[in-house]
Amino acid sequence: LISCVQSGLSTTNGDIPDYGCSVRELIAGTNPLGGSFKLCLDTSISPNGVMSIEKDACTDFIAHNAVASINESGGDGSSVEEKLEELDNVGDVSVVRSEVNPRNGGYTWKIQFLTDADG
């Protein structure tokens, strides 16, 4: 909450008049983003046998603000890259995370599947 403290304001001409200090909310804010999500990849139906491992698999829960890569997580298993690469049907991936969206506190992750899992 922002408020105006008249006693703490002054000008070179003296004190700020009563109408000289006001606070308004121009754009309503939102509650901080939180929680977790899972990513799933279903390769169980591979029409042309492209996928080495045909399986429907989901990651463990991923934090709403998870870092993209193993380099950023220090190898603690919390990055989107690490979560995806734990799946039996995923090989090597590259993940990039956007800057935080200032309007909602969210992120966008771009995932590139580099290699297939060995089958």
Tag the structure with descriptive keywords.
119 residues, two-stranded antiparallel ribbon, two-stranded antiparallel sheet, 20% strand, rod-shaped
Nutshell version of this structure?
This protein is 8% helix and 20% strand.
Written account of the structure:
By secondary structure, the protein is mainly β. It contains 2 helices and 8 strands; from the N terminus they run E-E-E-E-E-E-H-H-E-E. The protein has helices at 70-73, 80-85; strands at 10-11, 14-15, 36-37, 40-42, 56-58, 62-63, 93-97, 109-113. The strands form 4 sheets. It has a two-stranded antiparallel sheet with strand order 1-2. It is rod-shaped, with a radius of gyration of 24 Å.
